[in-house]
Amino acid sequence: MAAMTECLKANNKFVYVSLLVIQTLVLLIDFIPGASPYTHWLTPPVALFLGLAFALLCGQAHPKFNKKTSKYLLQYSVVGLGFGMNLHAALASGKEGMEFTILSVVGTMLIGWFIGRKVLKVDRDTSYLISSGTAICGGSAIAAVGPVLRAKDSEMSVALGTIFVLNAIALFVFPVIGHWLGMSQHEFGTWAAIAIHDTSSVVGAGAAYGEEALKVATTIKLTRALWIIPLAFVTSFLFKSKGQKVSIPWFIFFFILAMVVNTYLLTGVPQVGQTINYIARKGLTITLFFIGASLSRDVLKSVGIKPLVQGVLLWMVISLGTLAYIYWF
To answer: Are 218 and 206 within 8 A, CB to CB?
Structure first.
């Protein structure tokens, strides 16, 4: 039995490495002029699906590697995307969505508290973590607020699992709904940035929808992610957890710096920024494979029905609320 288990693990690792190598080669081949007809099939949603399929069928092959690599590769990719954006256009997009961002963050936290604590009776910390992840930027917000809240590992796992499941669904469903509703690039980018939890899925959905949607979604989402800092301090005040370290998402500031460099220093050589941006998109695709490969059957089992229901209901409220804002205001 032990020998069979080791054999299965070895086979799983072989499949994992094979999938990773194939995707990397496809993305590298895409740099060859004229090769795009043969490589265009590898999109962010496809990479996520491959990761999910592997995790659910074979289990997690390298969980620590997946987690660490996806975290840093996402940050580097997001910074790289900044080299493809103009600062003035980004500020205009961020300013336009700022008022609703403030309203939605505060509103989501309050509605999440009501649904989780009053309706479903989810434990305090798990409910608060799910609300935080939905209100701001998914796993990053949960990872930042959790230590301040002094949440248990089990509570963190349940909250992260809930948000992760909904993120995976959103990456596939949102572009389809956007096309069905006939949303413009700007409308979809705004909707995705506010209604999808994690930055990775927001950027992935935006990239799947179009160039302008990607720019709008990334800018608004990262502006929204800055709310991690005040939320952590408010959490510390509400739950009396002074002295806890607040995790600041520094990569957001490097993203802004990249936009500044692209806008003012690379105007004479736009191909430099375009090349970095192109590489960043390829990095994002691989990132989504790593993220998908992190969702195992054990993660799904740990979620439980009540936290998942809270996450789904809260997600529906913010998704429909954002659509109403986009079409009526």
So the answer is: yes
Count: domains in the chain: 1
**CA separation for the pair 136, 147 (Å, rounded):** 17
* Domain annotation covers residue 281: yes
Whole-angstrom Cα distance, residue 72 to residue 12? 24
Q: DSSP string of 2-56? A: HHHHHHHHHHHHHHHHHHHHHHHHHHHHTTSTT-HHHHTT--HHHHHHHHHHHHH
C-alpha neighbours within 13 Å on the C-beta side of residue 46: 13
Is the CB of residue 117 less than 8 Å from the CB of residue 261? Answer: no
Q: Which of 12-16, 114-118, 167-171, 226-230 has the lowest mean pLDDT?
A: 226-230
Task: Of 92-96, 157-161, 168-172, give the lowest mean pLDDT range.
Answer: 92-96
pLDDT tens-digit map of 113-138 = 999 888 988 888 888 999 998 888 77
Q: State the residue range of the domain holding 85.
A: 43-328
> Could you write out the DSSP letters of every residue in 145-161?
HHHHHT--HHHHHHHHH
Which has the closest alpha carbon to 296: 113, 157, 108, 142? Answer: 157
pLDDT over threshold 60, residue 3:
no
Residue 5 lies in a domain: no
How far is the C-alpha of 79 from the C-alpha of 139, rounded, in Å?
18
In three-state form (DSSP H/G/I as H, E/B as E, the rest C), the secondary structure along 194-226 is: HHCCCHHHHHHHHHHHCHHHHHHHHHHHHHHHC
Q: Write the single-letter amino acid at 142.
A: I
Both structure tokens of 294: 């992190």
- Is 200 domain-assigned? yes
* Residue 4 belongs to some domain of the structure: no
Most confidently predicted of 92-101, 125-134, 146-155, 175-184: 175-184
